[in-house]
Amino acid sequence: MREVAERVVLSRNRVSRLVDEMARLGLVNERPDPTHERLTRALITEEALAAA
């Protein structure tokens, strides 16, 4: 989330809320980062790609 926040110039907290909402809508899946226990990755779903 930090990396996205830096790129889009939003706070980390705001990005986390947006990603949570996108996950609720089925646009992304949140997964733990396998290389760091405190990080989460947001993966775009096939449904989101098809809608783009």
TrEMBL record:
InterPro entries: HTH_MarR-typ, WH-like_DNA-bd_sf, WH_DNA-bd_sf. Residues 1-38 form the HTH marR-type domain. SUPFAM superfamilies: Winged helix' DNA-binding domain (SSF46785). It comes from the Bacteria. This is HTH marR-type domain-containing protein. It comes from Streptomyces rubradiris (Streptomyces achromogenes subsp. rubradiris). The lineage of its organism: Bacteria, Bacillati, Actinomycetota, Actinomycetes, Kitasatosporales.
